[in-house]
Amino acid sequence: MHIVIMGCGRVGSTLAHSLEARGHSVAVIDQNSDSFRRLGPDFGGITVTGIGFDGEVLRQAGIERADAFAAVSSGDNSNIISARLARETFGVTRVAARIYDQKRAQVYERLGIPTVATVRWTADRMIRHLVPEGNVEIFRDPTSTVSIIEVPVHKDWVGRPIKAIEQATGARAAYVMRFGIGTLPTASSVLQEGDQLFMLVTDDMAGGVTTAAGAPPEGGQ
After folding, report:
1. Contact status, residue 38 vs residue 8, Cβ threshold 8 Å
2. What is the pTM of this model?
3. Taking 70 as the threshold, does the pLDDT of residue 162 lie above it?
4. CA 57 and chain centroid, separation
5. Phi/psi at 112 (nearest 5 deg)?
6. Which of 29, 30, 35, 40 is CA-nearest to residue 4?
7. Which pLDDT score, from 0 to 100, does residue 54 have?
8. Measuring CA to CA, which residue among 82, 100, 107, 101 is closest to residue 92?
9. CA–CA separation, 74 vs 123, rounded Å?
10. Is the CB of residue 162 less than 8 Å from the CB of residue 190?
């Protein structure tokens, strides 16, 4: 894949290295040429100095053959304009934008632009570590209908099939984090102590799923 990244800050440079390490070709755009120093001497991709929503700059970065575009500069407006340009003008199907304003992120997701609301995500993750109760949204689809939330599970569910939790909550298990590794649950998967359970829900389901999973299973142990 060829991937164009707008913004060569800490996120953009880290993303560029990660994608290149996976064998993808990468082009990075930034207004400040000094920012490319973050890429280091081993970076083998393209660097283009300019504004990420300038059509000619995008062409220099290979947008016309790009499979994906990431807008991760420090400006919400620049990110969303360039993301829309990549999708609507150049036909790039895989587009994502980093947005600091949570309300804006929700609007743009409804327009079909997947966003990463950095401040919200970071705050949610910190809350999860500090205050275990409640749930944390990890992902929301572009139509803002389905999300993946981390669901705190009552200790009495340990040793029981994950399928039993699905039946009790009416939601589907998306994945389990076990010893720091993501695992896709199967029909025979059993919840183990220390597991983190992530479930697919709609907004109207989330509260009930959290309540059901946070309570002991019917019938006790």
Report:
1. yes
2. 0.59
3. yes
4. 26
5. 90, 15
6. 29
7. 93
8. 82
9. 18
10. yes
- How long, in residues, is the chain? 221
29 - beta bridge partners?
6, 48
When computed from its CA atoms, the radius of gyration of the chain, rounded to whole angstroms, is: 20
pLDDT digits (tens, 9 = 90+) for 69-118: 999 898 888 998 999 899 999 999 888 888 877 667 766 766 667 777 66
Type of residue found at 201: V
Which residue type, as a one-letter code, is found at position 92? V
Angle subtended by helix axes 203-213 and 162-169, to nearest 10: 130
Strands ordered across the beta sheet of 172-178: 136-140, 146-151, 196-202, 172-178, 181-183
The helix/strand/coil state of 70 is strand
Given a contact cutoff of 8 angstroms between Cβ atoms, the answer to whether 11 and 98 are in contact is yes
Structure tokens at 196: 């983190």
User: In 10 A of CB 160, how many CB atoms?
Assistant: 15
